[in-house]
Design a protein that fits this description.
By secondary structure, the protein is mainly α. The chain has one domain. 64% of the residues lie in helices and 0% in strands. It contains 16 helices and no strands. Helix 2 runs antiparallel to helix 13 and helix 2 runs parallel beside helix 15.
Length: 396
C-alpha cells in the first residue's frame, strides 16, 4: 500500500466523506425495502423508530446529486467530459452481469447453508441479458438512467448557471427550482375539503364514500426535474458555500431529521408506511436535510485528519457507484437469511446494525474487484496497441 502524502495533505476529504455517507445511506434505505417494512402497519415503538431511521437516510440520493453539481459545475461541452460516462456505464454493465450470472449461483450456495426457500431463475440468453440491462428496471438501475440524462446536460446547465451574473439571480434560479420541484411535494398532498383530513391524513375514502384526492394548490408538472434543482444547488454551494456554525448546523440536522420523521409518522399513523411525494427524493424535506448535511461536512476542518484516513475515504469513494449497484445482488443474498431468522418484521430492526455494514462491505469488495478488472483490461489494451507505451497496472 502506498499513497502520495503531499497530494493527500492538500486534498479536501469532505467530498469523499459525503460520497461514502451517501452510499451508506442508500444501503440503509434499501434495508427497509428488503425487510418487509412497507407491508405492516406503523403501530409500535420499533416501527416508529424505523420510520425515523428511514426518513433520515433519505438524504442519500440528494447528496449524490448535490455532489454532482459541486464537482462538475465547471465542465464544458468537450470530449473529455463525455468520455467519463464510459466509466459509469462500465460499472453498471458489470454490476448487472454480476446480478444476472453470479448472483443465482451464490444464492444456491447461501440457500444450502441456511436452508432458504428455492428460487427459480430465468435462463439468461444474450438477447435477454441485453434487454434487461437496457431496461434499467432492476439492479437499482433507475439512478443510472436518470444520471445518464443529467450527465449529458451538465455542460449546458453550466452554461446557463455561469451566464447568470449576480448571486441574487442565482438564488432566484434555485428558488424557482424549489418552487417547481420541491414545494409541490409538501403543498399539494392534502384534501382540505374532507372532514378529518388532519387527524387521519392517510384516509383514501371520505365520509361521503368517495375516493379522497389531494387538492392541487401550486403547479406540479415539473417535479420530475428535481435532479436539476439539486445540481444547481450543488453549483451554488461550490461558488458561494453556506456558512453556518458547526454546532448550529449539527443541531439543525437533528431538529430537521426529527421533524421529517414526525411528519412521515403522522401521515402513516396506524396504517402501513405511506409513500408519497412528501417523502420522495425531490421533497422539500429531503432537500433541506441533504443541504444541511452537505454543508456540515463541507465546513469542517480536516487539517489534523490522518493521511491514512484520507486515503481510505478517497479509495472508498471511488467504489461507491459499484457498491450502490452491486448491493442489489448482495441484498438478495443477505435479507432472505434475516427473513428466516426473524419472521416478525418490527423485530428485524436490530438487524440493521448487522445487515447494513455487511451489505456495504461485501458490495465494496466486489466493486473493488470490478474496478481492478477494468484497470487490468485497460492495461492489456494499451500494451497491445502498436506504438503505445503501457502504464503499470495500478496497485494498492
Amino acid at each position: 500500500m502506498s499513497f502520495n502524502k503531499e497530494k493527500l495533505s492538500k486534498r479536501d476529504p469532505a467530498m469523499d466523506i459525503l460520497r461514502c455517507l451517501a452510499c451508506f445511506g442508500v444501503v440503509s434505505v434499501h434495508f427497509f425495502l428488503n425487510t418487509g417494512f412497507y407491508n405492516v402497519p406503523i403501530g409500535n415503538r420499533r416501527m416508529y423508530a424505523m420510520v425515523y431511521i428511514r426518513s433520515f437516510f433519505m438524504f442519500c440520493v440528494p447528496l449524490f446529486l448535490l455532489l454532482t453539481g459541486y464537482l462538475n459545475c465547471h465542465k464544458k461541452p468537450e470530449r473529455s467530459h463525455y468520455k467519463k460516462l464510459g466509466g459509469t456505464l462500465y460499472t453498471y454493465v458489470a454490476a448487472a452481469l454480476f446480478g444476472l450470472y453470479a448472483y443465482p449461483k451464490l444464492y444456491g450456495a447461501v440457500r444450502s447453508i441456511f436452508d432458504l426457500k428455492e428460487v427459480t431463475f430465468e435462463p439468461n440468453s444474450i438477447v435477454n441479458t441485453v434487454a434487461k440491462i437496457l431496461s434499467f428496471n432492476t439492479f437499482y438501475a433507475w439512478y443510472i438512467e436518470m444520471y445518464i440524462g443529467l450527465f449529458l446536460m451538465i455542460p449546458f446547465l453550466n452554461i446557463l448557471y455561469h451566464n447568470i451574473k449576480t448571486k441574487g439571480q442565482k438564488k432566484l434560479l434555485i428558488c424557482t427550482g424549489l418552487l417547481l420541484t420541491a414545494l409541490p411535494a409538501v403543498i399539494n398532498v392534502y384534501n382540505f375539503k374532507v372532514s378529518g383530513w388532519f387527524s387521519e391524513p392517510s384516509m383514501t375514502v371520505g365520509p361521503d364514500g368517495k375516493a379522497v384526492t389531494f387538492n392541487k394548490i401550486i403547479p406540479a408538472f415539473w417535479t420530475i426535474l428535481y435532479p436539476v434543482t439539486y445540481y444547481f444547488i450543488g453549483c451554488y454551494l461550490r461558488e458561494y458555500g453556506l456558512k453556518i456554525k458547526t454546532w448550529l448546523n449539527g443541531l439543525l440536522i437533528i431538529a430537521w431529521a426529527g421533524l421529517n420523521g414526525l411528519y412521515n409518522l403522522w401521515r402513516s399513523r396506524w396504517v402501513i408506511f405511506q409513500w408519497g411525494a412528501w417523502c420522495d427524493w425531490g421533497s422539500l424535506f429531503n432537500v433541506i436535510q441533504a443541504v444541511l448535511i452537505f454543508t456540515f461536512f463541507m465546513n469542517l476542518k480536516y487539517e489534523k485528519m490522518p493521511l491514512f484516513l484520507k486515503w481510505c475515504f478517497m479509495k472508498l469513494s471511488g467504489l461507491t457507484l459499484g457498491i450502490y449497484l452491486i448491493s442489489w445482488s448482495v441484498d438478495r443474498l443477505c435479507y432472505p437469511v434475516i427473513e428466516k431468522a426473524e419472521p416478525v418484521i418490527h423485530k428485524r430492526l436490530e438487524y440493521w446494525f448487522i445487515a447494513v455494514p455487511i451489505v456495504f462491505t461485501v458490495s465494496a469488495v466486489i466493486s473493488y474487484l470490478i474496478l481492478k478488472l477494468k484497470q487490468l483490461g485497460l492495461f492489456i489494451y494499451k500494451k497491445a496497441r502498436p506504438g503505445t507505451e503501457a502504464e503499470n497496472p495500478p496497485t494498492n
